[in-house]
Amino acid sequence: MAQKTALIVFAHQSPASFNAAVLDVSVQELTQQGYRVIVSDLYATNFRANATRDDIIGDLRNPDLFQYGEETMWAWKERRLSSDIMEEQRKVEEAELVIFQFPLYWFSVPAVMKGWMDRVLTQGFAFSLEKMYNNGIFKDKKAMLSFTTGATQTMFQADGINGDINVTLWPLQNGTLHFCGFQVLAPQIFWSPAHCPAAGRAAMLEAWRARLKGLQEEKPLTFAPCELFDLSFAGGFLLRPEVKKEKELQPFGITTGHHLGKPLPPDNQTRASQDQEPGCSSNL
Amino acid sequence: MAQKTALIVFAHQSPASFNAAVLDVSVQELTQQGYRVIVSDLYATNFRANATRDDIIGDLRNPDLFQYGEETMWAWKERRLSSDIMEEQRKVEEAELVIFQFPLYWFSVPAVMKGWMDRVLTQGFAFSLEKMYNNGIFKDKKAMLSFTTGATQTMFQADGINGDINVTLWPLQNGTLHFCGFQVLAPQIFWSPAHCPAAGRAAMLEAWRARLKGLQEEKPLTFAPCELFDLSFAGGFLLRPEVKKEKELQPFGITTGHHLGKPLPPDNQTRASQDQEPGCSSNL
Fold it and tell me: Which of A253, B80, B187, B194 has the greatest number of beta carbons closer than 10 A?
């Protein structure tokens, strides 16, 4: 059996940080499990975040109106993307598991990591109009957000000052990772390590190590499979009428975003559903 | 009366783009209304997105463990932030109105604009532990997202393939803009202009111009005021028990994020509530 590969996309400036300590645990533990572990250290390599014309080698299709999405789609097809993007794309292709390790900045990833998403996940490589969500290009890969917060856990509850963390994670987990097909594992959230005594931080690292040991058996989060929708412009990419009727009888919405005017399914973006078959995020 | 100032933070690579056409309308119309309009053209100025040690002039407080939030807080106090950050902060200080103009990338702002948020909105300048949300530093300023999408409007409904746009906008509008105190005006969403005939795009621009004429009278979106919460570590930054009890009798949650296990208040992040007094986003 071929060796498995894990990619960790890492965004912290300091090797002395808690994020770096988490990274170390991940590398150790995954290596011990037989993974080849690749780390993309975005700050150390000064990864460019800005999506610009320089990402395309050679002429543009339409130099009069630069459209980044279009131009990078063609450049991907013709292998004319800049070398830093091509290198990251090769890593993603080789990986069965991609972990994003970062401190939460403004309810999201730091700009350098947003730049990785904007530039690496080009049309054609990471998605197409036919291949998205549970039919997406990376549907045989797993991805996961692992991040530290400044806020405490209760601040990110539905009755906490910042509101429900499940809502905050939707654009990243549904809109980015699952959009490209990734099976998304529950996020690993390190709540406010900076305000924790050293023993607390050490316990967090050990809990992470323990989780990593069982990671391969984890079920992914639940999203809404494409088959529920009429994926045509005529049908508006909306839920099929018979599905909508059936779902409207349920006490909860389908997902955090597909709530249908009902209460959100609890912990939809933070915990894998217990009552589904392994890996069947597409069998709602 | 002193002249009013508007700041437009702009993130598109091409002056021939629809985003640039929207920017032109904004500049024209706001100028006509007597605003001094400042444009921060992030790509044209090659604005740095990455949050690094270079953002601090002189020595670090803790060179052994670089913590960006801490170091920039001190550097702001001591006027030792890099000149590009200080310049943007001056613009924000002068502006009564800040408009973010961009194409939606991965359910969020492009990395270069995320970098603007990460680097410019430093602790001390944009928020403090005492001053946030409706008590935030920029509570007398208005802010607004104005963006184009690739997706159609129905794709971003709660029963559409991408889920509810109100959920997608939460981290930006609540977690970033309102966190700093901004009164957030309803977003201006240009749905899929690239797939629209020229006449459709022209109509979108005219609708935008018409909206701008009435912008000063618009009510902001509704968020959860700090006064509803026990803002102490002992109280967990959670809703006060008596508030929670009262809100649980209501048919809807308070906001998209503060849903309390109830259906989300419809259009909470896309439309100003009609039944509130002008400007009273803090009087739920």
Answer: A253
